[in-house]
Amino acid sequence: YAAGSKDFFTSRSGGETEILALFAQLNWQLTDEWDTAFGVRYEDFESSNGYFDDDDAATPQYDLTRIPSKSTDKVSPKFSLGYNPNNDWSFRYSVAKAYRFPIVEELFSQWEAYNAISVSNPGFEPEDGLHHNLMFERAIPGGYVRVNYFTEEISDVIESQTTTLDSGISLRTFLPVDEIETSGVEFIANATDMFVPNLDIRFNVVYTDSEIEKNDPNPSIEGNEYPRMPEWRGNLLANYRLNNNWDIGANLQYASDSFGRTDNTDRENRVYGAQDRYTRVGLKSTYRLDNGLSLGMGIDNLTNEESYVAHPWPGRTLYLNMAYDF
After folding, report:
1. What is the pLDDT, as a whole number, of residue 218?
2. Which DSSP state fits 200?
3. For 167, which DSSP code?
4. Which pTM was predicted?
């Protein structure tokens, strides 16, 4: 590095993307107990001005290869049906078709390092997902409890896949995973004055099972867990109102271990590239003045837990904030 020249490029790649979208929704109260909603989103996606380096040492300029522009449009419909037999119970089923278009890095990123190569893939099609959710909700004093069962199938999932060549060089490119399936259950409880007066609670816990069902480019990863999808996640936020102007709060965040690679070989904890479990505690207090100004202070990650999400999560963090409501 010290002996190298710093006045010319070693690699170059880039490009642009643009999305234009239009969304419409219709809500219809069929009867006192039944309601329904219809929605549709139209998206027009274009990638343009893409390039990567292909330098010819015999020419004075740094040579680039241009990537042709590409455009795609998609229509995503959604539907939901709700049933409210009384003031205590409500039920809702929702289904939606959705697409995710690739970002600039996934389309155009290309580089070489001393032991790694990243190859661009500008030919991506959007991810194609079908999503279902079934909700059960029960009213309780000051709030509600809710259970969601969700399931989804997504094809052409845009994901970074890496292989090691015989030379020891790591070769990475963004390739579509043919299909992943995800199912899970979420429990939510939100209420004011829970257990004791002036205590507000917000709580959720979710179990998720996400699996790679099909992957023709590398069938060996079929059946593996999909990366960055912890089986268990939960959040608890408790806020106590000391008076009309001053409140104090505490929060607890939890996530179980997950993988960062589709081959599920990254099992080491507390290293760069790991996807660690964590349990973080935070404290916060806010005081609101009568003129609309509010002042707050807090501590995140009170126990200074060390954990990584590819890079390290922040350690113990003190902060002050100020807000003004017009």
Report:
1. 87
2. E
3. T
4. 0.88
Three-class DSSP category at 108: helix
CA distance 249 to 239: 4
Residue 1, pLDDT score: 63
Residue 325 main-chain phi, psi, to 5 deg: -100, 120
Cα torsion through 263, 267, 269, 272, rounded to 10: -30
Element (H, E) at 107: helix 104-108
For 325, the token pair is: 């409501």
Collapsing DSSP states into helix, strand and coil, what is residue 25? Answer: strand
CB 289 within 8 A of CB 245: yes
pLDDT at 168 (0 to 100): 80
Helix (H, G, I), strand (E, B) or coil at 221: helix
> Whole-angstrom Cα distance, residue 45 to residue 69?
11
Phi-psi region of 223 (alpha: psi -120 to 50; beta: other; left: phi over 0): left
Q: For the chain, which ranges sit under pLDDT 50?
A: none
Beta bridge partners of 216: none
Give the pLDDT score at 167.
Answer: 81
Question: Which pLDDT value is given to residue 326?
Answer: 86
- Cα 276 from chain centroid? 16
Work out the burial of residue 213: count CB atoms within 10 Å of its CB; fewer than 13 is exposed, 13-18 middle, 19 or more buried: middle
- Residue in the block written with tokens 């000391």: 242
